[in-house]
TrEMBL record:
One of its GO terms (molecular function) is ATP binding. PANTHER family: ALIPHATIC SULFONATES IMPORT ATP-BINDING PROTEIN SSUB, TAURINE IMPORT ATP-BINDING PROTEIN-RELATED. The keyword Calcium does not apply. This is ABC transporter ATP-binding protein. Gene3D superfamilies: P-loop containing nucleotide triphosphate hydrolases. The lineage of its organism: Bacteria, Pseudomonadati, Pseudomonadota, Betaproteobacteria, Rhodocyclales.
Length: 231
C-alpha cells in the first residue's frame, strides 16, 4: 500500500510551455525515506509542489494517503534550502508557527498552549537546540537555523516530511552533522520523508530508495533501493 503515488504525472507551468516533468511514476511506502536526485532544473521542486498540492498535474494522478491530491495538504511538513525563519520571532516562536496555522492545533492553541509549548521544547531538544529557545534567528549558525527549520516542519506531527535541498547552503562538515541528525529523527519518529537534492552522496547516505531524474523534461531514469549496512 503506497503512501505517496504518482501515476504518469506531467506538468507544464504554462499552456503552451515545455513540460517541467513528464510521465513520472513514484511509489512511496509509509515510513520510507525516499530521495530524488537530479541536476538543477530537472523538476525536483515541481515534484514537491505536486505532492503538497500547491500544483495540480496536467496529466496523470497524484495520490497521498490513498486520496487524489486536490489542494494544499495539512499532513505535510516542509523545509527548504533557506531556513526561512521569521527574524522577529525567537526560535521557539518560529517552531510554534505551524500550531498557529494548521488545524486542529490552531483552534486548540488557546487552551493547550502550555502543552504545545512543551512539545516544541522537546522537539527542539531532539534536533540539538536545547537552550536556543529564546534566541533569535540571527543568533544561530546556519546549521542551527536549518535544525530549527526542520523542527518547525515536524512540530504538527506531519505524516510526510518534504525536504527541498535542505542542506545545500551548509559547509560539508555541518551538512554531515545534519544528515545524522535527520536520520536519528527519522528512526525515532514515525514519518515518511521525500528529500530532493542534487547531491548523490547525500541521497545514498540517507535514503532507502533513490530516484534519479533526467533534465528537460524531468523524467525518472532509475529507481534504486539502497541496501547498505548503516553505521
Ligand atoms: P529543480 O527543483 O530540479 O531545480 P524545478 O522543479 O524548479 O527544478 O524546475 C523544473 C523546470 O520547470 C525548470 O525548467 C524551470 O525553469 C521550470 N519552472 C519551475 N517553476 C516554474 C514556474 N513557476 N513557472 C514556469 N516555469 C517554471
Ligand atoms: P508574535 O505573534 O510572536 O508577537 P508576529 O509574527 O505576530 O509576532 O508579529 C507581530 C507583528 O509584527 C505583526 O503584526 C507583524 O506584522 C509585525 N512585524 C514585525 N516585523 C515584521 C517584518 N519584518 N515584516 C513583517 N511584519 C513584521
Amino acid at each position: 500500500m503506497s503512501f505517496v503515488r504518482f501515476e504518469n504525472v506531467s506538468l507544464a507551468y504554462t499552456d503552451d510551455g515545455p513540460r517541467a516533468i513528464e510521465d513520472v511514476n513514484l511509489d512511496v511506502r509509509e515510513g520510507e525515506f525516499v530521495a530524488v536526485v537530479g541536476p538543477s532544473g530537472c523538476g525536483k521542486s515541481t515534484l514537491m509542489k505536486l505532492v503538497s498540492g500547491l500544483r495540480l498535474p496536467n496529466d496523470g494522478y497524484v495520490y497521498v494517503n490513498g486520496r487524489q491530491v486536490g489542494g494544499p495538504l495539512n499532513l505535510v511538513g516542509m523545509a527548504f534550502q533557506a531556513a526561512n525563519l521569521l527574524p522577529w520571532r525567537t526560535t521557539l516562536q518560529n517552531v510554534m508557527l505551524p500550531m498557529e496555522i494548521v488545524e486542529p492545533y490552531r483552534s486548540e492553541l488557546r487552551s493547550h498552549r502550555a502543552e504545545f509549548e512543551q512539545r516544541a521544547r522537546a522537539q527542539l531538544a531532539a534536533v540539538g537546540l536545547a537552550g536556543c529557545e529564546d534566541k533569535f534567528p540571527w543568533e544561530l549558525s546556519g546549521g542551527m537555523q536549518q535544525r530549527a527549520s526542520i523542527c518547525r516542519a515536524l512540530i504538527h506531527k506531519p505524516r510526510l516530511l518534504m525536504l527541498d535541498e535542505p542542506f545545500g547552503a551548509l559547509d560539508a562538515f555541518t551538512r554531515e552533522e545534519l544528515w545524522c541528525m535527520l536520520r536519528d529523527l527519522w528512526q525515532t519518529q514515525p514519518f515518511t520523508v521525500i528529500l530532493v537534492t542534487h547531491d548523490l552522496r547525500e541521497a545514498v547516505f540517507l535514503a532507502d530508495t533513490v530516484y534519479v531524474m533526467s533534465a528537460r523534461p524531468g523524467r525518472i531514469l532509475v529507481r534504486r533501493e539502497i541496501d547498505l549496512a548503516r553505521p
